[in-house]
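Renewal narrative, Specific Aim 1. Our central claim is that a sequence can be written position by position from structural information alone. The example that follows is taken directly from our test logs and has not been curated for this report. It begins with the structure tokens describing the chain, in the order in which they were read.
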């Protein structure tokens, strides 16, 4: 199992299902991002209670614990957001009219998009990490070259050592920040 899949499984333990659209919501959230349902954590802490729903069209709160099909103020039907194409899908329908993705596949598509986003971010971090590592190595090499050449030619020592120190610092400082951020993310997960 890949690390990103393990991270998602750990994250699923902190997520619960929306009582209106069955989308995943983190325990700490009070509103479903997919359908606008206002929720609260049940007394047992293992489920969410529906407190109402916010209409994305007019912004009305629609209070009440029963699932609704449409807004009481503007009569706009409540809809979940399709993760494939971001089109609104009315809760009464079973698939997206724009891309054909079924409601049952919404969670799988959301997870796939989240994993792809994490992989892209990790790849970008790896590229920057390699760049800073090489920049540090080049800086150290310039310092060493300045010390070796400086024995025979004192005029070259100062520029080589100085440029090596600057090059190494510009590589080592961001490298240290990247390592600290990576260790913080590992501790949080």
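The sequence written for that structure reads:
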């Amino acid at each position: 199992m890949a690390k990103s899949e393990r991270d998602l499984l750990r994250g699923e333990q902190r997520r619960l299902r929306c009582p209106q659209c069955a989308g995943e919501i983190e325990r700490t959230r009070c509103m479903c991002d997919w359908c606008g349902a206002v929720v609260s954590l049940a007394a047992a802490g293992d489920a969410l209670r529906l407190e109402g729903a916010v209409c994305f069209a007019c912004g009305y709160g629609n209070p009440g614990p029963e699932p609704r099909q449409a807004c009481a103020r503007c009569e706009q039907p409540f809809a979940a957001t399709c993760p494939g194409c971001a089109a609104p899908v009315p809760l009464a329908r079973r698939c997206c009219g724009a891309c054909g993705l079924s409601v049952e596949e919404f969670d799988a598509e959301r997870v796939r998009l989240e994993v792809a986003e994490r992989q892209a971010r990790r790849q970008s971090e790896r590229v920057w990490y390699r760049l800073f590592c090489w920049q540090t190595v080049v800086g150290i090499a310039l310092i060493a070259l300045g010390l070796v050449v400086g024995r025979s030619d004192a005029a070259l020592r100062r520029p080589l050592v100085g440029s090596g120190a600057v090059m190494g610092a510009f590589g080592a400082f961001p490298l240290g920040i990247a390592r600290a951020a990576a260790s913080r993310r590992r501790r949080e997960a």
